[in-house]
Amino acid sequence: MSLSPHEPQIRTRQVAFVVYDGVTLLDVTGPVEVLHQANQVGSGQYETVLVSAAGGQVTAASGLVLAGTITPNEAGTVDTVVVAGADHLVDGVPSEVLNVTAALAANAPRVASVCSGAFVLAALGLLDGRRATTHWRHAAAMARQYPKVEVVPDALHITDGRYVTSAGISAGIDLTLALVEADHGADTARAVARELVVFMQRPGGQSQFSTAMATPPARTELMRTITDTVVADPAGDHTLPKLAATAAVSPRHLTRLFQNEFRITPGRWVERVRLDRAQQLLLDGHSITTAARLSGLGSDETLRRAFARHLGATPTEYLRRFKTI
After folding, report:
1. Distance between CA 114 and CA 203 in Å, rounded?
2. pLDDT (0 to 100) of residue 293
3. Do 230 and 273 form a contact (C-beta atoms < 8 A)?
4. Which secondary structure element, helix H or strand E, spans residue 96, and what is its range?
């Protein structure tokens, strides 16, 4: 049945994924599933194709096969190109991957990469003079190999002009949610995030790490209880006496436990968790005062001191560097 004149027609957007032997599977399947769910919730309308040099089958690094890929000529002009990553790209990008990407990117309004896929864009010179990110493990290599690129090693995804680059693996989902939001608005992106049971959405400038992620798992149930309590509610009452009472140990003993487990005092660890929360709040658009209050840091001055101590920057400088464009 045709749409009535009063019903909005949704334009179909063509999204091409550059794939090749050895590609990281989740760099492809994660973003594809985001676009599929965008179609399912009714607001998005995407057609996805897998593009390789020769078409046919390619084998991912996991050994699973991606079938039905097409060539760049068969793909034609697309709206968005997404270059998936692979570890071997860091050591050199195969010419066929460069050729496929160059052909697709020539006329595409938007060009994105997941993880080390940024090395392909950098090798083509597309990121010269631009800010970009990649997996934290490869950031130094990218900066060294492509000095004309301003590599931001600690962001989930960055938009600079028509180019969007993201960190590793699961960050491709965050990147694609951001693309859906740009195309169809926050409501659609939130609906997709709910279906996928993921955050909507980790801000592009958010660190690839949080204190909770960077801290080794506690070896004892007592310490896991303490750390989980703080992470769940950074703004709560987490003074040393309060934490010690929760753990049913003395403050001195809890301090020894933190030093033995994490080589850090309880107070400094709590401050780092609160700083993680403040960073996210600022990137979400909260004021410095609100971020300080909701994160548990308390005052503007305490927040500024924490930023200076751990990040070497003021909150304003942090936002200027990491806020998604």
Report:
1. 16
2. 93
3. yes
4. helix 95-105
Looking at every residue in the chain, the average pLDDT score rounds to 87
Q: Collapse the DSSP code of 168 into the 3-class scheme (helix H, G, I; strand E, B; otherwise coil) and give the result.
A: coil
CA-wise closest residue to 254 among 267, 241, 268, 244: 244
Distance CA 320, CA 298 (A): 23
- Sign of the Cα torsion 310, 132, 156, 208 reads negative
How far apart, in whole angstroms, are the C-alpha atoms of residue 294 and residue 233? 10
**Coil, strand or helix at 131:** strand
* Amino acid, res. 310: H
Distance in angstroms (rounded) separating the CA atoms of residues 151 and 142: 7
Residue 191 tokens, joined: 């609906």
User: CA angle, corner 268, sides to 265 and 270, nearest 5?
Assistant: 105
Query: Token pair for residue 286?
Result: 């909260």
Half-sphere CA count of 51, side-chain side, radius 13 A: 30
Catalytic residue among 28, 115, 126, 152: 115
pLDDT (tens digit per residue) in 190-219:
888 878 866 544 444 445 445 554 556 677
Q: Do 67 and 57 meet the contact criterion of CB atoms below 8 Å apart?
A: yes
8 Å CB contact between 61 and 203: no
Q: How far apart are CA 263 and CA 161, in angstroms?
A: 42
Would you call 281 a catalytic residue per the annotation? no
303 pLDDT higher than 60:
yes
